[in-house]
Amino acid sequence: MKRIHTFAAALLLSGACSPDGFTIRGNIEGLEAPYVYLMTFDGKPVVVDSARVEAGAFAFAGKTERPEVAYLSLDKEQPLVRFFLENAAIGIGGNVYNANEVFPTGTPSNEAMNAFNELTYDTSEAYNVTELESDRERLVDDYKQRMRKLIRRNRNNICGMIVLAETGSMFFTPEEVLDEIGRFPAEWRQRPELTDLRRVMEHRLRTAVGQPYTDIVAPDADGTPVSLRSVVENPANSYVLVDFWASWCGPCRMEMPFLQNIYDTYRQRGFQIYAVSLDTEREAWQAGIAASEPKWIQVCDFNAFDSPAALDYAVESIPSNVLIRCSDGQIVATQLRGRELAIRLEELLGK
User: Do 330 and 232 share a domain, yes or no?
Assistant: First the structure.
């Protein structure tokens, strides 16, 4: 169902608009494009409306069935500014030559997001120049506290929901995120942004350290289904690393030589790798395997992040991994990178 209904911008310019809809008045210094496009994102960019630009000024009018994230674009692809579209009067101002100076005004949610974006910029700048780890930890803690305050103050508008949905999982534990979701009014808890976040956090809880592993069944290069259970329950194995990767993932490919060295060192002591590719094309997957020639188990169902394995293990980005102890099937570590994996296996299996 179409969630946004637009009206001719001429109505707005003449002073008429829907009494319960939105109006967007823009005046951006240096804007010389003939048109500006109002866009949303529904799996892919969607052009909702266009407006003619005259001396940097433009206008839209319409009605949205619910508040949502929107963009203004000059080319129907790259966003010029991101803002919250809701049935209210919204202003867009700034300078086209500096994207950080183009911003929305006019609603509590947009004003709150402006303040949060300034906080994010200031904190990231300080983090980049800070050398002491204690100072960095203090900055992160301060950022988390300010994020909590912003979410608490904006639970009744789209800003709080979007901040939690887009950044909460990076700074809060799954338990904390689920608690925050539960504090939103029902109308916001039922939005896909929070129902999807809840699902991911619940999966993450089930794949946390100390939890039993979840079985995976996917085909190998010959098309033969190989279950993670068969690897974990193999008497020859003591620990199994479930490694999520893809041929197109640069960091994953960079990790391969190190994994090969770890595998060669600890294979005879009971270490095995069950690699789950998130590729979508068989040729690309096979080429990726051929390029690095890993010796461990490789499976792929070509469903990428929609594969049951990726969903069950709450994989949001790659590389990603979990380490399973075969004796009891418990997850003993997650997201071990580089030297961290070697150190942990040395602790578990000896030098």
Answer: yes
Residue partners of 67: CB distance under 8 A and separation at least 6: 84, 85, 86, 109, 157, 158
| 236-266 confidence digits (pLDDT tens) | 999 999 999 999 999 999 999 999 999 999 9
Neighbours of 170 (CB within 10 A): 9
* Contact (Cβ atoms closer than 8 angstroms) between residue 336 and residue 262: no
Average of per-residue pLDDT across 177-194: 96
Total number of domains in the chain: 3
Judge whether 101 and 114 are in contact, CB under 8 Å.
Answer: no
State which amino acid sits at residue 111: E
* pTM confidence score: 0.71
Q: Are residues 97 and 123 in the same domain?
A: no
Same domain (yes/no): 194, 238: no
Residues 224 and 325 in one domain: yes
Single-letter amino acid, residue 191: R
The set of residues, in sequence order, having a beta carbon less than 8 Å from that of 63 and lying 6+ positions away, is 4, 5, 7, 18, 20, 21, 22, 87
Residue 152 lies in domain:
112-206
- Residue 261 sits in the same domain as residue 328: yes
- 93-120: pLDDT as tens digits: 999 887 678 899 999 999 999 988 876 6
Same domain for 175 and 241 = no
Report d(CA 132, CA 140) in Å as an integer.
13
